[in-house]
Amino acid sequence: xxxxxxxxxxxxxxxxxxxxxxxxxxxxxxxxxxxxxxxxxxxxxxxxxxxxxxxxxxxxxxxxxxxxxxxxxxxxxxxxxxxxxxxxxxxxxxxxxxxxxxxxxxxxxxxxxxxxxxxxxxxxxxxxxxxxxxxxxxxxxxxxxxxxxxxxxxxxxxxxxxxxxxxxxxxxxxxxxxxxxxxxxxxxxxxxxxxxxxxxxxxxxxxxxxxxxxxxxxxxxxxxxxxxxxxxxxxxxxxxxxxxxxxxxxxxxxxxxxxxxxxxxx
Length: 266
Prior knowledge:
It contains 6 helices and 14 strands. The protein is an alpha+beta fold. The radius of gyration is 18 Å and the shape is globular.
């Protein structure tokens, strides 16, 4: 189980679908059309300052083995994201504390602490990772990978045969594809390394509205590389927006610090 939970953490920290492989029709988009679409997407996507996911389930499929655990997650937008993994009877076994500059993963069963910054983590997993991109991926919000703002001039708009839209953004190392439905909701984000076959595919579905905020209750993540793949289905069962939450960092004095390479290789 320890190995399977570390796969979950790797999926959350990372980072072929039919819609991205279908033959597409590229329109000669008028100047400003891509900007208008991105603006509509931003108006549609979930907007909140805090989110308290009191109950969430995760189904992990790795090498034809399936496991289920319970999670909770607290988010302060643009500040921090805490994830608690509770496989057995509500007992917290793993906790990930993700902030703007540091990722800390606590293995509470074995009293171990794994720490990494985003530069080191990006080198290890082969996909550029930063806090704002990770936050947006989890919150179902539009982003340009590795950027602290939307780089409209570098985005390309493609119209799919289904009528949905596709926004492409490339860096030197990553190809990012964002699929947008006709109602301007983001339904899929694909991040693919240009140097190898590493890819993180995130699908959003089962959209519901809570206190005026529309969000996906199901998030599916599929992480693949040259050797293997792992699929995680996250189902949100209880969530509260814009409530007052407190994020208390775990006291690291009780833990033995271990190189994060050991976690990623498990």
